[in-house]
From TrEMBL, chain A:
Residues 293-371 form the Aminomethyltransferase C-terminal domain. The lineage of its organism: Bacteria, Pseudomonadati, Pseudomonadota, Alphaproteobacteria, Hyphomicrobiales. Residues 22-269 form the GCVT N-terminal domain. This is aminomethyltransferase. One of its GO terms (molecular function) is aminomethyltransferase activity. It catalyses: N(6)-[(R)-S(8)-aminomethyldihydrolipoyl]-L-lysyl-[protein] + (6S)-5,6,7,8-tetrahydrofolate = N(6)-[(R)-dihydrolipoyl]-L-lysyl-[protein] + (6R)-5,10-methylene-5,6,7,8-tetrahydrofolate + NH4(+). One of its GO terms (cellular component) is glycine cleavage complex.
Automatic annotation (TrEMBL), chain B:
It comes from Methylocystis hirsuta. The glycine cleavage system catalyzes the degradation of glycine. The H protein shuttles the methylamine group of glycine from the P protein to the T protein. Pfam families: GCV_H. Residues 19-101 form the Lipoyl-binding domain. HAMAP family: GcvH (MF_00272). GO terms for biological process: glycine decarboxylation via glycine cleavage system; protein lipoylation. This is Glycine cleavage system H protein.
Length: 385, 124
């Protein structure tokens, strides 16, 4: 039989190692190439157990392959709006916003998180996808040459799950009070530790950025809590698919615009009126008239999962879309998928069909997310900032 | 239990007379990770050495299983429909896939025995 790992071993050898590479191997990780890095795909528990552990307690993910950079200078946020459709000028210090880098036709070059750092000088911390970071960094520094742009060589860990807040709060008092999409710098053994209340699993959680030489100490401390177990890329992918979160290179790419991708909510009101970002005409049209196709949830009526690339057809056989992410949901114990479907066929409950080897299976259009989000809500009356 | 013979594609055969029990090796199941669905052939289907006989879906991906022998399927593991993870838990025992009436028992001679398969795994 041919396994995914057979393919993996044939990949080019020039892979970068994560700062925590040795830790992963000691923990029994199965490593696989991803976006130029040797990444932990899973640990001994396996993807199903790691996914369920994240939903029930908390998991530690190493996402150091992602790109981190700082863009600094007067009115840097306003300037970055020339590449993205989010309202960044209004971003308060210590708050994070999700947005996209767009090409001239409004297609998504990458999705990213932008945090306004505290201080008098305007500094923005950007976190971008591993597979896109070189291109993103080249684009930003070329488009905004008047600003200081510095990629950061820092490790990035994600602590995700309902116990994440209690664990991190015990280690860093005050972290448990951060609002959703809030950010703060803490002191970790004399070194700055950036904490953002964000993640990509649908659970409450944090992303933790620190210099690589301190990452092992932090990982060790977090893993010493009974609630925390390591989880790999496989579980991360299952979790984000269950949470209906799009992944760049699969559900988002240069031909998809933010509206059809279902992330139109991230386009600020002022930006919708004023424009001033690449592809504004296409995006305004999609906002006003509705997009011609939309990203939807898909429930294959089969025991076997539908995979990325599968074509979706209407009852009359007309091709109406395709699957962009598909797999098995450990939480729901059934196959789930996401994909793009022509708007006329995208109503929740509509039945489509897809080929599955030599058969066809019915596929029901479903609402996203498959597993409800459990992001942290600031308790009423409490000023978390 | 008869001796096991292994293919380079990580399938095993346990041959008893002309009846072969086929499955995937412990190494193969560990490489696949959590198995969530297995598509097996129907009883009566003719199988050919080296040709696809089953598909195993793990959480991550679908993988084909190739027959290490030629013959006719006489039984498929009825437990795997409801409990595909049996292949993870006990690949050589309760996680067997199919039983085949082999047309040429001599085909097994080209497969690896335990010692040869262990050495082969070390080369991967």
């Amino acid at each position: 039989m041919v396994t995914e790992l057979d393919v993996a071993t044939a990949a080019p050898p020039a892979l970068s190692k994560l700062p925590l590479d040795a830790v992963h191997r000691r923990l029994g990780a199965r490593m696989a190439p991803f976006a130029g890095y040797e990444m932990p795909l899973q640990y001994e528990q396996g993807i199903v157990a790691e996914t369920l552990h994240t939903r029930r307690r908390a998991s530690l993910f190493d996402v150091s392959h992602m790109g981190q950079a700082i863009l600094a200078g007067a009115r840097a946020a306003r300037a970055l709006e020339s590449l993205t459709p989010a309202d960044l000028a209004s971003l308060s210090p210590e708050r994070t916003r999700y947005t996209q880098l767009l090409n001239e036709s409004g297609g998504i070059l990458d999705d990213l998180l932008v945090t306004r750092l505290p201080g008098v000088e305007e500094r923005l911390l950007l976190v971008v996808n591993a597979s896109r970071k070189q291109a993103d960094f080249a684009l930003i520094s070329a488009a905004l040459p008047q600003f200081d742009f510095n990629p950061l060589d820092r490790a990035l860990l994600a602590l995700q799950g309902p116990r994440a807040s209690a664990v991190l709060g015990a280690l860093l008092p005050g972290a448990e009070d951060l609002p959703f999409m809030g950010w703060r710098a803490f002191d970790f053994g004399g070194a700055p530790l950036f904490v953002s209340r964000s993640g990509y699993t649908g659970e409450d959680g944090f992303e933790l950025s620190l210099r690589a030489e301190h990452a092992e100490d932090l990982a060790r401390l977090l893993l010493s809590y009974e609630d925390v177990a390591p989880a790999g890329l496989g579980a991360r992918d299952a979790l984000r698919l269950e949470a209906g979160l799009p992944l760049y290179g699969h559900d988002l790419e240069e031909t998809t615009d933010p509206v059809e991708a279902g992330v139109g909510w991230s386009i600020g009101k002022r930006r919708r009126m004023e424009g001033g970002f690449p592809g504004f005409e296409r995006i305004r049209r999609a906002l006003e008239q509705g997009p011609s196709r939309v990203r939807v949830g898909l429930l294959p009526q089969s025991k076997a999962p539908l995979r990325e690339g599968a074509e979706l057809s209407a009852r009359d056989g007309e091709a109406v879309g395709h699957v962009t992410s598909g797999g098995f949901s450990p939480t729901l114990q059934r196959p789930i998928a996401m994909g793009y479907v022509a708007s006329a066929h995208a109503n929740v409950g509509a039945t489509l069909s897809a080929p599955l080897r030599d058969k066809r299976v019915d596929v029901t259009v479903a609402a996203l997310p498959f597993v409800p989000h459990r992001y942290f809500k600031t308790p009423a009356g409490k000023d978390a900032r | 239990m008869t001796d096991l013979r292994y293919s380079k594609d990580h399938e095993y055969v346990a041959l008893d007379g002309d009846l072969a029990t086929l499955g995937i090796s412990d190494y193969a199941q560990s490489q696949l990770g959590d198995i969530v669905f297995i598509e097996l052939p129907e009883v009566g289907k003719k199988v050919t050495k080296g040709k696809e006989i089953a598909v195993i879906e793990s959480v991550k991906a679908a993988s084909e299983v190739y027959s290490p022998v030629s013959g006719e399927v006489v039984e498929v593991n009825p437990e795997l429909g409801e409990a595909p993870a049996l292949v993870n838990d006990d690949p050589i025992g309760r996680g067997w896939l199919i039983k085949v009436r082999v047309s040429d028992p001599g085909e097994c001679a080209s497969l690896m025995d335990d010692a040869a398969y262990s050495s082969f795994l070390k080369t991967l």
